Amino acid sequence: MSNNNHKANQKNQNHGTSGTNTPHQKVLDNRSNQLNPNNPLYKTKK
């Protein structure tokens, strides 16, 4: 995959393809880690 536009790749879900793009999947993984209360780095809402 071309890494010429990382910011656009983070938002692109690749609908209609058989796979996911790596930057988008990393964004989803990071978000799920941030929202997971079992994660030691979890921060509650202020």
Please outline the helices and strands:
Blueprint lengths: L5 H6 L10 H14 L11
Short overview:
Helices cover 43% and strands 0% of the residues. The protein is mostly helical.
Would you mind describing this structure in some detail?
The structure is a single chain. By secondary structure, this protein is mainly alpha-helical. The protein contains 2 helices and no strands. It is elongated and about 35 Å long. It starts with 5 loop residues before the first helix and ends in an 11-residue tail after the last helix.
Order of helices and strands: HH
Query: Strand pairing plus helix content: what structural class?
Result: mainly alpha
Oligomer: single chain
The chain-level mean pLDDT equals 78
**Gyration radius, in Å:** 14 Å
Instruction: Please report the total strand number as a whole number.
Output: 0
Note the main attributes of this structure.
single chain, 2 helices, mainly alpha, 46 residues
